[in-house]
Amino acid sequence: MKKTGSSKLKAVSITPTPRLRYSGYLIRKECVRIFWQLVATTSEYGKSAKIRGKLKLESLLNNNKNSDFCAPLTSFDWNELDPNLVGTSSIDTTCTIWGLETGQAIGRIDNNSVTGMVRTQLIAHDKEVFDIAFSRAGGGRDIFASVGADGSVRMFDLRHLEHSTIIYEDNQQQPLLRLCWNKQDPNYLATMATDGLEVIILDVRVPCTPVATLKNHTACVNGIAWAPHSSCHICSADDQQALIWDIQQMPRPIDDPILAYRADGEINQVQWAAGQPDWIAICYNQSMEILRV
Q: Of 268, 280, 289, which Cα lies nearest the Cα of 234?
């Protein structure tokens, strides 16, 4: 990456074969995440597999017991404290928390894999839900938030599902696509809107009012990633730029990023390495680049 006004550092470029599958539309057709030896994917329903020399299907997450089909899932998140818990969001306005129960057979399907048990399901939004993420607050197990087409960010507690907290509502009810919790300070989270040119930083202690808005993007924001080692740094990506921001001066306005990198194509995903915080990965076109911060 480069500091504003300085020269670029080298980036490692990787071209995967076969081509990575990605959908830039509101719904990510296929989302893949890995937790230790478990791999989970979502599309029309969720699946988890275990890596034991080869992949073996462990769980099938289908909430419609009367049919082989269910409303398409838009995203999901794995609970870091309790890997038995997976949260999914769907276009049917619901969020579902699943207990994978991979060590105990709750039910069987034709290929002898374990069927995930619905821990709880709730109507989370007035319209489609586009993303869900667990927070590290309150012990890191029970609190999660979601965003959706109704333009709101809502926070839930598994211990008290009879009510939720609306953290933010877009004035124009513009759909919100993604949210990302601060890795070091669970009071803060970031979100972005459809075709939005800015990243909205929220403080759950001050609902409905953004504490900062990062506006230096020249195209719609496609990805957000908080630094794993710092509560003050966040990376955002748009058409061809990956920007790193220092937000420690909040609530004063934050005008410019501290680092910037320009890719050779539209950046559609960004991740900050948890174990190696000096490295950030971005994806564009058919390539993935590893950037040294």
A: 280
How large is the average pLDDT for residues 118-127?
81
Q: Supply the pLDDT for residue 56.
A: 65
**Phi then psi for 122, rounded to 5 degrees?**
-145, 150
Gap between the Cα atoms of 196 and 261, Å rounded: 20
pTM of the model: 0.79
Cα separation, 60 vs 201, whole angstroms: 35
Tokens encoding 71: 């409303």
Q: 41's torsion region: left (phi>0), alpha (psi -120 to 50) or beta?
A: beta
Task: Look up residue 198 and give its DSSP letter.
Answer: S
| Non-local CB neighbours of 60 within 8 Å, separated by 6+ positions | 45, 46, 47, 109, 113, 115, 116
pLDDT of 147-180, one tens digit each? 999 999 999 998 888 888 999 999 888 999 999 9
